[in-house]
Structure to design on (249 residues):
């Protein structure tokens, strides 16, 4: 039964397209999240989808089967940019940055930040959430979500920020050696569910891995990102779960 549930969850994770910026959207005013579905026909799923992200994680299914996730992020990121919605770090087109789930390889495309967190855990919201976006050869997406809480400074964030330029769409190469593993929690217990992109076009079929345990950044580091956003939020509100199974592993 447990293996069946796991398989059904995996089957729900079909192909999802990347966020489309042809039509302007945002997080405030008439282009905010509650209006996304009406901004464009391409964005209709933002209003009508039944497996949307983020969610409030609660009432999980405890799996006794082992479903280890192997993360090999060995290659240095390529560049960093403020794209108007978030700070995004783009990965090199390489097979040296990969996540392996049940024998399937997903390759890191980029990671970015949301403040405050989009997913919540038993109603708890964190000041920051990092999304590592990975895709397999067929374009199916797996997102690793890492919560960030206020605490000890993170040295990798300091090195990333050294190369960052706050002007919109000004891409800067990464010059420091970044240990991406240090942006992941050391304890790798997680929640898993099928969801969507949290930005337009809100495509569904995204496999979500949300780590239980947060990493830390200092208050100054968190505020560096918030300052770029003019201290406005860039998180989509929690969406209805609609009976989806959330596996706790």
């Amino acid at each position: 039964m447990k293996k069946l549930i796991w398989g059904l969850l995996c089957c729900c994770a079909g192909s999802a397209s990347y966020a489309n910026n042809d039509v302007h959207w945002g997080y405030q005013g008439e282009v905010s999240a509650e209006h996304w579905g009406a901004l464009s026909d391409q964005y209709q799923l933002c209003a009508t989808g039944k497996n949307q992200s983020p969610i409030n994680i609660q009432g999980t299914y405890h799996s006794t089967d082992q479903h280890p996730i192997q993360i090999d992020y060995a290659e240095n990121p390529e560049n960093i940019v403020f794209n108007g919605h978030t700070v995004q770090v783009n990965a090199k087109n390489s097979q040296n940055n990969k996540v392996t789930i049940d024998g399937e390889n997903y390759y890191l495309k980029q990671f970015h930040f949301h403040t405050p967190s989009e997913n919540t855990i038993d109603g708890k919201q964190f000041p920051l959430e990092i999304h590592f976006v990975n895709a397999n050869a067929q374009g199916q997406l797996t997102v690793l979500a890492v919560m960030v809480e206020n605490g000890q400074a993170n040295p990798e964030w300091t090195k990333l920020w050294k190369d960052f330029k706050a002007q919109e769409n000004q891409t800067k190469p990464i010059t420091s050696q970044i240990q991406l593993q240090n942006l992941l929690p050391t304890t790798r217990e997680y929640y898993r569910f099928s969801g969507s992109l949290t930005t337009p076009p809100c495509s569904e079929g995204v496999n979500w891995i949300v780590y239980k345990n947060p990493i830390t950044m200092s208050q100054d580091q968190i505020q560096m990102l918030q300052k770029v956003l003019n201290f406005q939020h860039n998180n989509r509100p929690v969406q209805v779960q609609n009976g989806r199974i959330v596996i706790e592993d």
About this structure: The two ends are 15 Å apart (CA to CA). The chain has one domain: 2-248. Helices lie at 2-12, 36-39, 45-48, 155-162, 219-228. Residues 2-248 form a domain with the Carbonic Anhydrase II fold (CATH 3.10.200.10).
